[in-house]
Amino acid sequence: MAETVIPTTEMAAATLAETPSSSSSAVWSEFSKRVLIKNIIGRPDGGVGLAGEKIKVGGWVKTGREQGKGSFAFLELNDGSCPANLQVIVDSSVYELSQIVATGTCVFVEGVLKKPPEGTKQNVELKVEKVLEVGGVDPAKYPLPKTKLTLEFLRDHVHLRPRTNTISAVARIRNALAYATHTFFQKHAFLYVHTPIITTSDCEGAGEMFQVTTLFSDTEKLEKELKENPPSSEDEIEAAKLLVKEKGEAVAVLKAAKATKPEITAAVSELTKSKEKLAKLEERSRLKPGMPQKDGKIDYSSDFFARQAFLTVSGQLQVETFACALSNVYTFGPTFRAEHSHTSRHLAEFWMVEPELAFADLEDDMNCAEAYVKFLSQWLLDNCLDDMQLMVKNFDKTAIDRLKLVASTPFERITYTDAVALLEKVTDRRFENAVEWGIDLASEHERYLTEVVFKKPVIVYNYPKGIKAFYMRLNDDGKTVAAMDVLVPKVGELIGGSQREERYDVIEKRILDQGLPLEPYEWYLDLRRYGTVKHSGFGLGFERMVLFATGLDNIRDVIPFPRYPGKADL
Q: What residues does the WHEP-TRS domain cover (predicted)?
């Protein structure tokens, strides 16, 4: 009997990591008994070398048409593994063609790969021998017809839009950037740390945070319960007090009469029960409908976390605790901002990549940020070129050239003061936002610097302390902080970072100067009290990186499930 080989974790990992090659046989998916379309037409020979091989494929019909007076049908099949489709031919003797030609139909088929006739654009096609599974579609009701659909339309069909060429390409590009992010930091010995989504501190000090509370549901539940079972009346409480008094006197009488131990124990038990009943009645009598109040304000000590809590705007403060013990770390996760903005650049939920480097100053921070952005850009050129070509064809003809520029060009570095002086001298255009020292540079200023003046990525550093967060290190001039922003063409600011303030007395004063309470940041101050260390870090807005790469204009199109004011589908 032949020995059964059970795949090991290492074997599975090797299979998953395998890319289309010129091997004479198709690469089968380890876990779904099929061949991915990218492993057929994504090969150097376009799949020609697989002609004659029997395989199974699954996917969704992009277009289908019956031919030969209904004797067979051509299906353009896509499984999401790459932007290209595989042409599939099904004879009417194999399956009812009307059930599988509609756009959106899902099919799982088995057949033989073959070379198509000369003069056709396909390198290889699949002649189906068996239709194994079908997920049908009613063409009259399917929301995504074959016609060209706008990105605005697709935002109203967020659950189906991954089936479109654009959104599936964006998903693969986003995935590649996430994989590249972990690859870069792991390669450079950074430790990945999961920071909390629920926090009690405001990293930005802006106050635009989503509150996390159970007070509303608790209050509704209490009001409903009080309506069905009203609180104890004063008469009930007085009767319970009287009963406790009587039970207490009974115990005293038994003890004075030197009654037996069982008799006294039984009486004490009755007294205890009476006291417990009284305590419950008194507690219930104190229950009031409405939000719990203390000194005219909401009493958060009654809330789930016994204090105010929020969805995080950044994992930076928390990940610093690990940087101050494990040296180089990073976090990569969702963050939230309750900003009532409907612009194409803002989301209520977005992802941030936030590394922290111990024993590092601002220059080290800038070097790391530049290397990271270059790595991401080159990664897409090396691993996602087919999807990038689709973006160039349909949206931004300069997308690939922009990646090449960033990957190969040293970033310009300029102080904030010099950048403002340069912008103040601009005469060839009129900015909507006036330029003067002390302002927070707007997107139009950032893009002018990177697209017009330097024509490459720019790092602006040493910003006025008044427009930056309390944790950024105060420079010796007392006016600026060791902060930096990485600006790139198309989006402007891509990264914001700084050397962190490691001096206890300075950061304590900075917190107070910005009108923030010290108490929520006591743990953060402890990092300066005990073994303080010079350290730096930055945050990259992940959706902005996807925008920069793809050339799309609206940030709502580069995140799978966009959340913004008035919209939280699924």
A: 236-292
Q: Are 330 and 368 in contact (CB under 8 A)?
A: no
Report the pLDDT value the prediction gives residue 416, as an integer from 0 to 100: 98
Residue 197 pLDDT exceeds 80: yes
**Cα–Cα distance for residue pair 360/426, rounded to 1 Å:** 35
Taking a C-beta distance cutoff of 8 angstroms, is the pair 377, 407 a contact? yes
> In sequence order, which residues have a C-beta less than 8 Å from that of residue 511 and are 6 or more positions away?
470, 518, 521
Strands (DSSP E) found in 429-528: 458-464, 480-488, 492-499
Query: Is residue 551 within 8 Å of 391, Cβ to Cβ?
Result: yes
pLDDT tens for 86-143 read 999 999 999 999 999 999 999 999 999 999 988 888 899 999 999 999 999 999 999 9
Q: What is the structure's pLDDT at 292?
A: 87
- Alpha carbon distances (Å) from 33 to 26, 57, 253: 12, 9, 84
Query: Between vectors from CA 308 to CA 307 and to CA 314, what angle results, nearest 5°?
Result: 125
Which parts of 409-551 fold into alpha helices (H)?
Answer: 416-424, 443-447, 504-513, 522-529, 542-550
What burial letters (b/e) apply to 195-208, b meaning 16+ CB within 10 Å?
beeebbbbbeeeee
* Whole-number average pLDDT of the chain: 92
Residue 228 banded pLDDT, cuts 50, 70, 90: confident
How do strand 458-464 and strand 480-488 relate by DSSP bridges?
antiparallel
> Are 526 and 499 a contacting pair, CB within 8 Å?
no
Give the pair of three-digit tokens for residue 403.
């990646």
The proportion of the chain whose per-residue pLDDT surpasses 70, expressed as a percent, equals: 95
Residue 8 pLDDT: 41
Question: pTM of the predicted model, to two decimals?
Answer: 0.87
| 137 contact partners, CB below 8 Å, separation of at least 6 | 102, 103, 104, 105
Residue pair 463/437 in contact by the 8 Å Cβ criterion = no
CB 482 within 8 A of CB 473: yes
Q: Where are the alpha helices (DSSP H) in 111-164?
A: 151-154
Rounded to 10 deg, the angle between the 399-408 and 542-550 helix axes is 120
Alpha carbon distance 521, 511 (integer Å): 9
The candidate with the shortest Cα–Cα distance to 412, out of 463, 449, 361, is 449
pLDDT at residue 24 greater than cutoff 80? no
Maximum separation of any 2 CA atoms in the chain, in Å: 115
Which residues are within 8 A (CB) of 492 and not within 5 positions of it... i.e. 6 or more apart? 443, 446, 447, 450
In whole angstroms, what is the distance from residue 158 CA to residue 171 CA?
A: 13
**Model pLDDT for residues 381-435, shown as the tens digit of each residue:** 999 999 999 999 999 999 999 999 999 999 999 999 999 999 999 999 999 999 9
pLDDT score, position 23:
58
pLDDT over 60 at 263, yes or no:
yes
Give DSSP secondary structure letters for 274-319: HHHHHHHHHHHHT--SSS-EETTEE-GGGSTTSS-EEE-S-SHHHH
Q: Are 193 and 561 in contact (CB under 8 A)?
A: no
